[in-house]
Amino acid sequence: MKIPIVLLAxxxxxxxxxxxxxxxxxxxxxxxxxxARDFAALEAIYSDQLIYAHSxxxxxxxxxxxxxxxTGAQRxxxxxxxxxxxKLFGDSAVAHCHMRMMGTSNGRPFDDKIxxxxxxxxxxxxxxxxxxxxxxxx
Length: 138
Fold this sequence. Notes:
The chain is α+β, with helices and mostly antiparallel strands. It has a single domain, classed as Nuclear Transport Factor 2, Chain: A (Roll). 31% of the residues lie in helices and 49% in strands. The chain contains four helices and six strands. The protein has helices at residues 5-13, 20-36, 39-45, 62-71, and strands at 46-53, 59-60, 74-89, 92-105, 108-123, 126-136. The protein has a six-stranded mixed sheet with strand order 2-1-6-5-4-3. The protein is globular, with a radius of gyration of 17 Å. The model is unreliable at 3-16 (pLDDT under 50).
């Protein structure tokens, strides 16, 4: 059976849906770059419109957050995904995770168990982190 050319044209107009594996890989790249303090990788991972909401209630844009990382005001020594649930929405995806994060913030050490929500968007064939929200767990 031949597929009509019109149907092929319609299907070609829609990009392939995201896969959970792509989002898991994006999460892994993000956590590795944060711990390694790989600022070039983080600049490429974070959307220019990034909303970064910390568990303290502080909210920063990409520029402010990258400045905190570069100056050492925010430093991560461990970023460990313990559980991850991914929901796909075409060229966007939500990753809901239980995490353990250790490091220092404003000179104070932290060892937090958190719940994290990431919004990933696909732009130009790349997954970008558009939003980050964390909540401390008991």
